[in-house]
Amino acid sequence: MAIDNRGRPAKHLQPNTSSQKKFEFFHDERVRSIFYQALMAAAVGLLVWYLYSNTAHNLEVRDMNTGFDFLNVTAGFDAGFKLIDYEPGVGTYRDIYILGILNTLFVSVLAIIASTLLGFVIGLMRLSNNWLVSKVALVYVEIFRNTPLLIQLIFWYIGVFSLLPKVRNSIDLSGGAEVLILNNRGLYMAWPVPGDLLWMTGVAFLVAVSVVVLFRRWAQKRLDLTGQGFPTLLPSIALLILLPGTVYLMTGAPLEWDIPKLEGFNFSGGAALPPAFLTLLVALIIYHSSYFAESVRAGVLSVNQGQLEAAHAIGLKPAQVATRVVIPQAMPAIVPPMISLWMNTVKNSSLAVAIGYPDLVSLFMQTTLNQLGHAIEIVAMTMAFYMTISLSISWLLNIYNKRVQLVER
Q: Are 275 and 162 in contact (CB under 8 A)?
């Protein structure tokens, strides 16, 4: 109710509308935000339209064919190392694209796993109280982290794997069993040939894994409720070995091995990994593990010293302190650089073109492009693959990162 100057109700007094805040377009935060976003979207759309129209015009002027019909054309060259069935003159360039993707993922996944494990070990060695161990780890990190990956590739290819003994003087890494042989033509190994009932062993292994997961969850819940731990490592290992092993023996051991044999001037049978693959794998592992080691060291050092003192005070063993106190609290600091490490491992595998490993860049962006043209389509498909893999790695590890962040709280 409005009141006059004497404190009495004033029925006919109206509020002063001139004192209300006026709406101004550029001073309203929400409207301004939407306007600038729409403006940016229009600018990006205009840029994309310009690039597309300009590219289409230039292709038309030069009478160059466009489209993805070339993927159905028969490819006349061999890939050398291949993980799928492919025959020159029968397979298509689509097969070459798939083959390049599989070769890239094969070496990248192995390098990611090995470099992560090795980086953990080297990072913990850097924190060792043993002077020699810590200094060896320091030299390892400083040498390989500060040397270009391309130089390391050339070093391993020319200075190590090309100097291995010839076929007749091969190195038997299996101690005389001749199931793992190394020479200057690559690594030859025995390859499993599964029988009809081997699937039962696989099912038994999956059952064992499920039981181990439930068992470890029970042990963790028991620890949280009572404070009493329960040994899980040895029982888990025993179950993972005994259950599938028993089923394997009961089904008549349905697994044979194709062992490489020396015939003429080379080995035949089994599986073979060329020197270019071994070079790329070793270089990727060593280079990226040196970076990851520093991330592990920084993550461990970020754990409060009081946490370690409290863990030792309640009687935890060093292994328990590391697995239950240090590493869980260090993971939030380790995972973000690990995302970049894994993505860079996949992208840096493209340097394989320098040593002749048939990855996606070598088979598709080099050989296929030189034979057919279609540069825009081929480059776009290659970029789409690397972008998809990088975004997938980032998405998965960000989910894990959120989980470890919650665990820390």
A: yes
Rounded Cα distance between 143 and 145, Å, is 6
Which residue, 93, 113, 170, is CA-closest to 346? 113
Q: Which mean pLDDT values do the consecutive 10-residue runs of the chain (409 residues) have?
A: 56 51 61 80 88 73 73 86 86 91 94 94 90 93 93 92 89 86 90 89 94 91 80 89 92 89 83 92 95 92 83 79 82 89 93 90 90 86 93 90 65
Quick one: which of 36, 107, 163 has its CA closest to 285?
Answer: 107
DSSP string, 126-163: HT-S-HHHHHHHHHHHHHHHTS-HHHHHHHHHHHTGGG
Q: How far apart are CA 138 and CA 135, in angstroms?
A: 5
Would the CA dihedral through 213, 215, 216, 222 be positive or negative? positive
Domain ranges in the chain are 93-190+259-408
Distance between CA atoms of residues 346 and 109, nearest Å: 8
Residues near 379 by Cβ (< 8 Å), separated by ≥ 6? Answer: 365, 369
Q: Does domain 93-190+259-408 have CATH number 2.70.150.10?
A: no
Q: What whole-number distance in Å separates Cα of residue 347 and Cα of residue 156?
A: 19
Residue at token pair 């130089």: 151
What are residue 355's phi and psi, to 5 degrees? Answer: -120, 5
